[in-house]
């Protein structure tokens, strides 16, 4: 079921019209089974994705600039933080938006953000 949800999110993200701004609104769940993606926090050099947390919805952009929401229904993806051994994605938080982005090709690229307003 988890793989299907991830695949469905990737398909939806990939078929959104060109020109629609993609945003990452992330919900942190405490239940691994509810998560779209299992994430581990790693050292910057070992991270697949460098993430910059933003203060509002309007500043969120792409997979790498996250607005973390407390409301599940507002999220474009839900994550469960776990160890690197169980993780599907490793991230490192960075201080500046200009540093954020994918560090290497990854199968989840585009799955955290969706068309938003």
Task: Describe the overall structure.
With 117 residues, this protein is mostly beta strands. It has one domain (2-115). Helix content is 12%, strand content 31%. The chain has one helix and eight strands, in the order H-E-E-E-E-E-E-E-E. The protein has one helix at 2-15, and strands at residues 22-28, 37-41, 49-53, 65-69, 77-81, 89-93, 101-102, 114-115. The chain has a six-stranded parallel β-barrel with strand order 1-4-3-6-2-5. The longest helix has 14 residues, at 2-15. The chain is globular.
- Compute the CA-based radius of gyration: 13 Å
Shape: globular
Q: Number of DSSP strands?
A: 8
Helix and strand pattern: HEEEEEEEE
Overall domain count:
1
In DSSP terms (H or I, runs of 4 or more residues), the helix count works out at: 1
Main β-sheet description: 6 strands, parallel, barrel
InterPro entries: Septknot
Domain 7(1) septoil knot: 24-103
Protein name: 7(1) septoil knot domain-containing protein
Can you tag this structure with a few keywords?
single chain; 117 residues; mainly beta; six-stranded parallel beta barrel; 8 strands; 12% helix; Septknot
């Amino acid at each position: 079921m988890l793989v299907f949800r991830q695949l469905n999110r990737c398909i939806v993200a990939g078929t959104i019209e060109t020109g629609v701004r993609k945003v990452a609104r992330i919900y942190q769940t405490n239940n691994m089974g509810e998560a779209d993606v299992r994430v581990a926090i790693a050292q910057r050099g070992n991270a697949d994705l460098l993430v910059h947390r933003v203060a509002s919805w309007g500043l969120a952009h792409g997979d790498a600039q996250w607005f973390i929401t407390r409301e599940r229904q507002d999220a474009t993806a839900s994550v469960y933080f776990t160890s690197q051994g169980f993780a599907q994605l490793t991230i490192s938080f960075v201080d500046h938006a200009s540093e954020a982005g994918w560090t290497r090709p990854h199968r989840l690229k585009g799955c955290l953000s969706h068309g938003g307003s």
